[in-house]
């Protein structure tokens, strides 16, 4: 079977099944699952290290599709590579192929089937919250969750991919250890708003000007409209509470760094909801499903602009699936009620 492009991003392109490695090696299965190959021009050491660590966690195969091996890809037919931007734009670049289990299609592609998407998104949200708890309990922050970095298989099971920007909270000694940058770039929609806020002043922006640029994102405006959020007040509170020294911001990141991923999952659900509302004839049915108050509570809780008020993965999961086996029973008594900020 000739490899088919399954997804791509700044890292490179993902093919299903895995292309042949240079030298003839073929990865037909990993852990009993068909293999995919991600061809990239990025350095892969960190992602392979994190991939091996995450895939060694209990239940990992249910929640992640991450690379654990690397090889040089054999030349691919032009018909296969013609849609891969990295291979078109960098034909002489040194490429590396990373191999991972087949998790399915990206959420971007999944939304092309609105009936299927509409039917399964609540279950997918619960599954992603469970996976998030697993890797966060192991000390990791994914830091790059978006519709292209979640794969959904034929059974509508979602898996996280691409920990290339991931980091461990315990390893953060300075801001730069977390791959977050120092320059305010409002166009980066998926960046958590507190990260935007902490970049504003070092980049010469006042808060109001920065928030005005953030409000150019339709999703940010939608969050404010749907949930009555005051983004300006919330992000001013973040900056005023944090301070501007390197140590202040590093300590803030160590305290709230996991909430970066909580924001991204909340924004993912907002984006899917917004996209589905524009698809007919499913508009009415999908909007009715998202009147589910528990789902709306979670969407609101995960997209608080202030991470101090933002819900954790465990809080959100407890609200949707309190009997999930991923939730430790001993923690239940110490958690706030679902309508309280966390």
Sheet with most strands: 6 strands, antiparallel
The general outline is: globular
The assigned structural class equals alpha+beta
Number of helices: 15
How would you explain this protein's 3D organization?
By secondary structure, the chain is of the alpha+beta class. The protein has two domains: 4-102, Phosphorylase Kinase, domain 1, CATH 3.30.200; 172-334, no CATH class. 42% of the residues lie in helices and 12% in strands. It is built from 15 helices and eleven strands. The chain has helices spanning 45-55, 60-63, 78-81, 85-89, 107-110, 114-137, 193-200, 207-214, 218-227, 231-242, 246-256, 259-276, 283-289, 293-302, 313-320, and strands at 4-9, 12-16, 29-30, 33-40, 69-71, 96-101, 105-106, 140-141, 150-152, 158-160, 167-168. Strands 1, 2, 3, 4, 5 and 6 form a six-stranded antiparallel sheet that branches. A three-stranded antiparallel sheet has the order 7-9-10. Helix 6 (114-137) packs across helix 15 (313-320), helix 7 packs across helix 10 and helix 14 (293-302) runs antiparallel to helix 15 (313-320). It is globular. It starts with a strand and ends in a 22-residue tail after the last helix. The mean pLDDT is 88.
Task: Offer a concise description of the structure.
By secondary structure, the chain is an alpha+beta fold. The protein has 15 helices and eleven strands.
């Amino acid at each position: 079977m000739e490899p088919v492009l399954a997804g791509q991003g700044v890292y490179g392109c993902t093919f299903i099944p895995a292309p042949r490695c240079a030298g003839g090696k073929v990865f037909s299965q990993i852990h009993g699952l068909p293999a995919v190959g991600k061809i990239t021009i990025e350095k892969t050491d960190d992602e392979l290290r994190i991939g091996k660590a995450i895939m060694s966690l209990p239940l990992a195969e249910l929640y992640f599709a991450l690379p654990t091996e690397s090889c040089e890809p054999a030349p691919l037919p032009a018909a296969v590579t013609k849609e891969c931007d990295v291979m078109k734009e960098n034909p002489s670049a040194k490429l590396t192929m990373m191999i991972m289990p087949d998790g399915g299609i990206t959420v971007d592609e999944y939304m092309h089937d609105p009936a299927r998407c509409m039917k399964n998104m609540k279950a997918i949200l619960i599954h992603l919250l469970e996976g998030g708890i697993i890797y966060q309990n192991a000390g990791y922050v994914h830091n790059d969750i978006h519709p292209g970095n979640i794969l959904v298989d034929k059974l509508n099971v979602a898996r996280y991919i691409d920990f290339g920007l991931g980091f461990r909270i315990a390893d953060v000694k300075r801001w730069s250890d977390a791959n977050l940058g120092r320059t305010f770039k409002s166009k980066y929609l998926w960046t958590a708003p507190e990260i935007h806020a902490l970049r504003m002043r070092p980049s010469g922006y006042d808060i109001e000007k920065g928030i005005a640029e953030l409000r150019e994102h339709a999703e940010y405006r939608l969050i404010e409209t749907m949930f009555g959020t005051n983004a300006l007040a919330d992000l001013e509170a973040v900056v005023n509470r944090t301070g501007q020294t390197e140590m202040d911001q590093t300590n803030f990141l160590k305290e709230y760094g996991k909430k970066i991923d909580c924001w991204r999952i909340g924004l993912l659900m907002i984006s899917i909801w917004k996209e589905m509302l524009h698809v007919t004839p499913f508009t009415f049915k999908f909007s009715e499903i998202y009147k589910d108050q528990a789902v709306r509570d979670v969407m609101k809780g995960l997209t608080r602009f202030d991470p101090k008020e933002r819900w954790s993965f465990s809080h959100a999961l407890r609200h949707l699936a309190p009997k999930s086996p991923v939730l430790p029973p001993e923690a239940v008594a110490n958690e706030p009620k679902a309508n309280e900020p966390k």
